[in-house]
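Hi C.,

You asked whether I'd gotten around to modeling the 85-residue construct. I have! Everything is below, sequence then structure, no commentary in between.
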Amino acid sequence: MDEETIQVSVRPETSVTAVRTMPDTEPANGLFIYAPGAGSDINDPFGSYLSQQLVLAGFAFVRFQFPYMEAGKRRPDQVSLLEET
């Protein structure tokens, strides 16, 4: 299992942290992208557990932070920015 933290550009002035986890076998069976729910971040227990289980089953897994969580804010961003992310 190979895990890497990366920065993903959403807009020229906005980027977010993402964690990409790859299975040991190539090619992966598919890719699962996890967007944590309101108030959660990329290290929430459910996302971490789901990542481990799906990677063990041969899937690549990416989980990412929304911009408002990245900035430490409680209030979600505008819908347009959330959708772009």
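If it helps when you're writing up: The mean pLDDT is 92.

Thanks,
B.
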